[in-house]
Amino acid sequence: MTGARSQLFAALVTGPLRHAAGRTVLAVVVIALGVALGLGVTLVNRSAASEVSLAARSLFGLSDLVVQGTGAGFDEALFPVLARLPAVALANPVVDVPVRVVGQQTAVTALGIDFFRAARMQPSIGVDAPRTNLSPLAADAVFLSPAAARDLNLKEGDTLTVQVGLAPVSFQVAGILPAAAYRQRAMVLDIGTAQWRLGQLGKLQRVELRLRSGAATEEVQQQIAALLPPGVTVTTPGAETDEALRLTRAYRSNLTALALVALFTGAFLVHSTQSLAVIRRRREFALLKAMGVSAREQIASTLAGGAIVGSVGALCGVGLGIVIAAAGLNAFGADLGAGYFRGIAPSLKVEWLDVAVFFLLGTAAAIAGTLRPAVAAARVPAALALKAGDIEDPAVRGNTIAGVGLWVLAGGLLLLPAIDGLPLAGYAAIALVLIGAVFLMPAVTRLMLRLLPETRSVPWQIATAHLRGTARQATTSLSAILVSFSLMVAMAVMVTSFRTSLDQWLEKILPADLYLRAGFTSETAFLDADDVSALVALPEVERVDANRFAQLAVAGLNTPLALIARPIKEQDAGRTLWLEAAATNAVPGDAQPVWISEAAADLLSVRSGDAFTGSIGERAVRFSVRGIYRDYERQNGGVVIDHDAYVRLTGDVRANAAWLWLESGADVDALVDRVHERLPGLAEFDVRRPGEIRAITLRIFDRTFAVTYLLEVIAVCIGLAGIAASTSAQVIARRAELGVLRHVGLLRRQVGFMLAAEGGLLGAVGVLAGLVIGAVVSLILIYVVNRQSFHWSMDVYFPWTLLMVLSLSLVAAAALTAVWSGRLALRDDVVRAVKEDW
Amino acid sequence: MLKLKNVRKSFPGPDPGRPRAVLAEVSLSLEPGDYIAIMGESGVGKSTLLNLIAGLDVPDSGDILLEGRNLATLDDDARTLLRRRRMGFVFQAFHLLPHLTVAGNVGLSLALNGIAGREADERIAELLKAVGLDDRRDSFPKELSGGEMQRVAVARALVHRPAVVLADEPTGNLDPESADQVLALLRAQLKRDGSTGILVTHSAVAAATTDRVYLLTRDGLQLQSSAASARPA
Q: How do B2-11 and A687-688 pair as beta strands?
């Protein structure tokens, strides 16, 4: 390209961007927002995942294999068996139990280790061992990880008191470990001390193994697996780390998908503004074509404009994204308030590959949004467009067949299962539903406009005639409104459905009058048989249901299922569980009846009436699934078993929680005081009324969805910006027409009414279509995406008031923007508007 | 019927505080049925003059009286209503509303003036017949040629029988043959209805179809070719 041609090309690219500076800035802002949210969430997720991975990895040191039991652990007799294996160079036994800090709702991971062996597996412990007067082997010595010291505000020499059963057990902080040793909130103590003082006598939770050089890891793994009792598995540290990440992947993926919605909407907004710009610059394109600018150059100049908007937006978005990520991590933590990553404090890790990907995504979104308008610009019929009085062909070139085809394809995708635990087909189906809806919009718009009533009002007649005549431009504007509003509706319906279902579920599963929980670390904080008897003996108490929380290992599952033992019988299971399905067959003679959560049913691939085998402690047991229940509490699967059966199987009479039914007329406040008198080890917050638990749970729900609400608000703003941009572009393009109307005698307010009617009707068509498509997308979110991500089912509830307010706001915004744009268009004088050469 | 007395108009110039005078002491008096042309160089204020007569702008000083009512004393609504009832416009670029049919465009002024039903249909049919487009009643503007569009514009300007028709370069975008047709049509209809017509044009051929031709200069409006019915005041 010669210098002069380059200059012309540059002028063709930048001129329109400068001419419509407001809309250019808006498109840049929208792309920037999309990139910023996407990158921000990705960086937070990346930092969290990196920290989770490092934390998991730091537990296993230099080990090659890890023999792992459930929370209850396994017999320590297994350790010498493993240590003596010829392929094993070093075996490191570990007691690994969470313990509650007395009086706090905080837990730390207690790691009981053999310091001498552990130092060889975890060199940072030995090399940088702190100097202390206290022997590491002393019965009250613990070392804290830096995270634990920071979170518990403890230093060397301080006392740390934890809860074992309901009794306090105190330790002295002998030192703070170096950061490289353990990254999570951990207290490290001698293994013998841990077994003795934390109630783990004779038990281990893990044995880490380092193999001799030359040993084939997989072969040794198989050899060890054959030696292990039920419920104990052998894995690699890598697999354990992956599992730690898998548990939060669905949440992280959904958050990223939600953040990318803004970018998706941004691309539509760019498409909308560029399409309208092509209509506005019709003559300019025709003139350039007449002067010899080729179609390829024409397309290239339009695309280059899109690329500039995209790259500037993406650049700003990248900077903003890093700021958002840093601020988000600082303010809400690694899980952005959802509570998934308690106990880790990641620092922001900016991966430049992520930055580059989001920069390219932002630029590509803008270019993709410009592609169709660019081709349209190159196809402007020069001879016609250059004629005086040229009128753009208002024919709508929608593609109904393509739209329906995409919907059919989306329907097919909905039948596919999750891919690697992620609802990728569900996301693709949502995108296809939205794109299909955009294809179908022309037909829908025509149908809706045909239904408009006729009146004798001239402004109304002109408005409706204009809308019918400009269906093409109208549908272009509507695509941005449709996409942003339908996603907004979908999120609102999904969140409302979830919240209402959660509220109703809480009411169902909290049938007792008072709930008592001995902390939340089931292996170390518990009520013993005497504690339960003390509760039963209280005169105000009619009945006590003891609950024990344990773990159930199932072959093939990397993470054990939560096992809840409580009094439950087949005939009244539905009174305390939200049953989705119940078995009709009889319990096989060798099986124990259990009820499993939807997540467990999905993970085990079983249905009501089926049987499966699992391990409680080191005992393999066959279970019969008597029903499948809804559970919003345990995302990784729960199994409910009758308490008596559990005690028969395990001999474990401890309880972690107790449900209290009171005598009628009992004074609850007085009873709470008496419970604390009898069981002084309970903290104040260990005893709750059902209403308190509901309130706390819903508060946590709202905190978890705070980021969702924020992203939703941004989607609303982008939707409004889309309406403003497209409406103002259209009105300004009709300057001459408005000028004529003023000439022939339309009063200012009549022009205002006409524009308001046009904007409002256009907004209403977009809102109505958005409500329908949003409802469809919400059903996909509820029945496919959530189900596959979190294994939660929920009932559908429409937030009618919110939807009505949002709909009216959007329609009003569209009407007001049209009126405002009209005032702007005719601000100077109406004569100029009708001048051919103005 | 239409009187302009010492009308002055200026606009803000490039230097703040030094307005650029466009019209200086313009006076004119027209009677019903008068049809005049105003010529002049580009930028001399022809469109500004039409603008003031239409009540779309107000003079800095002087009076513009249409049927005895001083436009400068009326508010925007009153001027708009006056324009709706008593004025018609023909533009260089036709400016038909693209989404109304030919009949819809012609009937726009009738609808605005509350004339509907049979009376409106008859007037539209009459005007369309007069401009030779009675067979294009249901066509949309994009289906018409430039000449046909301008004939529709003429019909729209006359259908409500205005007192004054203002035509700004109505043949500027037309070929000579179409231009001749439109000019002849405009003159015939104005004369038939007894409306006053003001044609702003650069074309001497177009100007020659009117009764009188005025030249607008920086010094004011000067009669170029005289006739009894056009009297500079």
A: unpaired
**Can you tell me whether residue A96 is helix, strand or coil?**
strand
Report the C-alpha gap between A770 and A723 in whole angstroms: 13
Contact, A74 vs A195, CB < 8 A?
Answer: no
Residue A302 lies in domain: 1-62+239-393
Please compute the mean of the pLDDT values over residues A59-68 and round it to a whole number.
83
d(CA B25, CA B27): 6
pLDDT tens, A290-341?
777 778 888 888 888 889 989 999 999 999 999 988 887 877 666 655 555 5
3-state secondary structure of B197: strand
- Map residue A247 onto helix, strand or coil: helix
CA–CA gap between residue B150 and residue B159 (Å, rounded): 14
B-chain residues near A745 (CB < 8 A):
80-81, 83-85, 87, 109, 112-113
Q: How far is A495 from chain B (nearest CA, A)?
A: 43
Is residue A30 domain-shared with residue A118, that is, in the same domain?
no
Q: What is the ipTM for the molecules in this complex?
A: 0.85
In a domain, A629, yes or no: yes
Is the pTM value of this prediction over 0.90?
no
By C-alpha distance, the chain B residue nearest A744 is B84
Of the candidate ranges A16-20, A123-127, A445-449, B181-185, the one whose mean pLDDT is the lowest: A123-127
* Same domain, residue pair A124 and A145: yes
A337 and A246 co-located in one domain: yes
Structural domains present in chain B: 32-58+73-225 (3.40.50.300)
DSSP state of B210: S
Check CB contact of B74 with chain A, cutoff 8 Å. no
Best of B142, B173, B175 to disrupt the A interface (most A CBs within 10 Å) is: B142
Number of folded domains in chain A?
4
pLDDT in tens, A389-402: 455 554 445 588 99
